Structure formats: structure tokens, C-alpha cells
Amino acid sequence: MRFDILTLFPDAFNAVLGESIIGRAREKGLITVNTINIRDFSADKHKKVDDYPYGGGRGMVMMAQPIYDAYLSIVEKLECKPRVIYLSPQGRILNQKIVEELGRLDHLVLLCGHYEGIDERIIEEIVDEEISIGDYVLTGGELPAMVLVDSVSRQVPGVLSSEESYMDESHSAGLLEYPQYTRPYEFKNRTVPEILMSGHHANINSWRHQQSLKRTYIKRPDLFEKLKLDKEDKALLKEAFENIEP
Ligand code: 4HQ
Predict the structure, then answer these.
(1) 82 with 108: CB under 8 angstroms?
(2) Residue 94: which residues within 8 A CB-CB, separation 6 or more?
(3) Atom 4 (ligand 1): residue with closest C-alpha?
């Protein structure tokens, strides 16, 4: 899978997407993360990429020309037009379903805006879809683009080890993760739940599933509402609330 990222801050990406799982996936050639500096396409002698908004008002607007020429530098070599996403609070809010959908594509172009945004005609001319990472305001689209690259890359076969990819299933199913413990057995007078010390894997799996159900109910009632519970799930949840907490 290939990501081409149009940005004024290309250096920000390698710092984050050069490490750990995504860094290794890039080394293996499973994903390509290419940044294009929009400023390199400025036609202005001072490399200007923004200008005052028509009609007045605060801030600066990113000019259409440098963005369009940067975009052309990607697509002119291609036979089929890649999906172009503009990261913006006006887009549909990213979730795991959208991540899975994007993960089936083999090429994405991500456009990162700064200042008060970009000239509307760029959105009309080249953007297929706007995506937001949540209802809050950031200073630029770079962090949202990194969030998108990270989450979508996890979907690419081979990026996650078999252990790492197991994590997926519960969130895809709309459940929260069960609690995890590692050594030492006792920390600040708190011990590890006895069931995890029992070595009885069927019981451990059942307990973990029960914890996932209970946590989702308590911490994310919005997710819980959407769950389709079977008889066994309902019994586990009932039991979880009948047990007296130590
Ligand atoms: N911005 N999800 C303004 C965001 C944002 C978000 C990106 C700030 C675009 C022009 N993007 N620029 N939230 O707040 O995606």
C-alpha cells in the first residue's frame, strides 16, 4: 500500500512513522509513506504558499496552485487516479469501519491543510473525501494524516505479527480489551487476578471475554448498545455484576 502525503511539514512524518511497527513495515516494503512538500511547487519567487482570504477576515488560506501542482506531480505518472483525502473537521469521523474500508485500497493521497484551510476550489477539483479524526480543532492536518496512515497500515497483511493482529478482533467486534498484567505478581499491595495464575486456558479466555463485556458496558455504553450478545455473553455479564468485588 502506498501513501502520498501533500504537506508543508514533511519532516514531521518520518519522526512518527519511522519507528516501531510502521517503521518496520516500511523497511519490509509492505507500505510506502512518501511525503511531497507543497512549498517545492510554489510558483512564487519567495516560495509563498498562502495568501489573504478574499472577502477579508482572519488568517491565511493555502493557495490552490502549489497544492494542485504537487498533486499533479503524483498523478501524472499513474494510469488510475488514486483516492484523495483531505483531513478536515468537516469530514466524516474516522472509525474502525472506515479504516478497514481504506485498508482495501492500494493507494491513498492525503492532503494536509494548515492556517485557516485551503482554497475551496482544490476541494472541488481534486478531493474525493474529507475525513476528520474527531470533533476538536488542531493546527494542521499532519497529525490526522499520521493517525490515518497508522490505523490503515495495520490492516495491510504482514504489517502486524500474528500476536499483534489478534488485538484487532475484539475492537472490530466493538468490544474493549480485557485487563492485562505482567510481572511482578504484586505491585503496591495489588495482586494479579488468581484466574490468570491458574493455567486453565479455557477459564482464562472466558474470564477475559467477561471482562471485555463488563468494561464495554461500564466505560463505553455507546459501543455496548450496538453489541449483539448471545446467551453465553448475557450469562457472563450477569455473573460479572453478581460477583462481589474484593
Ligand atoms: N484540522 N480532523 C484545520 C483539524 C482536523 C481534525 C485539519 C485543523 C485541517 C486546516 N483534521 N486544518 N480534527 O482539526 O482532521
Answers:
(1) yes
(2) 131, 132, 133, 134, 144, 147, 148, 151
(3) 138
Identify which of 5, 6, 88 to mutate to test ligand 1's pocket (most ligand atoms within 8 A of the CB): 88
Cell of 162: 500474528
Ligand 1 center to 46 CA (angstroms): 26
Joined together, the cell numbers standing for residue 33 give 509513506
Q: Report how far Cα 72 is from the mean position of its chain's Cα atoms.
A: 26
**Could you tell me the pTM of the whole model?**
0.95
Confidence of residue 245 (pLDDT cuts 50, 70, 90): low
Model confidence pLDDT, tens digit, residues 20-37: 999 999 999 999 999 999
C-alpha–C-alpha distance, residues 98 and 144, integer Å: 14
In which residue are the cell numbers 450469562 written? 235
Give the distance (Å) from ligand 1 centre to CA of residue 111. 11
* Amino acid in position 151: S
